[in-house]
Amino acid sequence: GMVEVIPERCVPIAKRELLYLGTVGWACWLSGIIFIDRRRRDAAIGVIASTASTMRRENLRVWVFPEGTRNPGRSMLPFKRGAFHLAVQAQVPIVPIVISPYQDFFSSKEKRFTSGTCTIQVLPRVDTRGLSPEDVPKLTESVRQAMAEALAELSRSDHGDQDTEQPLL
Fold first, then answer.
1. Which residue ranges does the record assign to the Phospholipid/glycerol acyltransferase domain (predicted)?
2. What does the pLDDT look like over 43-65, one tens digit per residue?
3. Which of 59, 75, 96, 162 counts the highest number of beta carbons within 10 A?
4. Which residues of the chain have pLDDT under 70?
5. How far is CA 104 from CA 30, 43, 114, in A?
6. With contact defined as beta carbons under 8 Å apart, do 136 and 85 qualify?
7. What is the enclosing helix (H) or strand (E) of 73?
């Protein structure tokens, strides 16, 4: 789903462990993915600060998965705050994107997708201009709440129905 809506000059942030997955790791590294070592908080904070500077200097966008891990359930996990610290440090807007659940056509046991449809909903931008690190907890929770409400609505709707109010991408 990400490929359908990823903007130009955008790179994802991923856990450092992906670097060690053979050819997947090489492909991630060659594509410019920003790696975060989640086990070393100081190193992760350094990467966030460096990325914020690069975002401002090079007009770069960053794609972050704020739950910090895969979630097999139909609800959202608590959000990690790193993405929100990054947005505040760079003074860039947050563009929340919600993808409908895919459990109906993905078998986690077999690690296999079958035919199915996802709905991708892009929520309104959340401005971070003028915010400081002290604002991050409230910012994190307000974005999470908006995304949780959108996910709940997407979960209730029929994903294959092309007559929904939200455009399918």
1. 1-102
2. 888 888 888 888 888 888 888 88
3. 96
4. 1, 3, 72, 103, 107-108, 158-169
5. 33, 38, 9
6. yes
7. none
161 token code pair: 């129905």
For the beta carbon of residue 39, count every other beta carbon within 10 angstroms.
Answer: 10
Rounded to two decimals, the pTM is 0.77
Half-sphere exposure of 41 (CA within 13 A, CB side): 2
Residue 14, burial from CB neighbour count under 10 angstroms (0-12, 13-18, 19+): middle
Torsion of CA 117, 21, 109, 71, to 10 degrees: -60
Buried b (16+ CB within 10 A) or exposed e, 124-159: eebebeebeeeebeebbeebbeebeebbebbeeeeb
Q: Which two tokens stand for residue 19?
A: 């670097």
Give per-residue pLDDT as tens, 64-83: 888 877 776 777 889 989 88
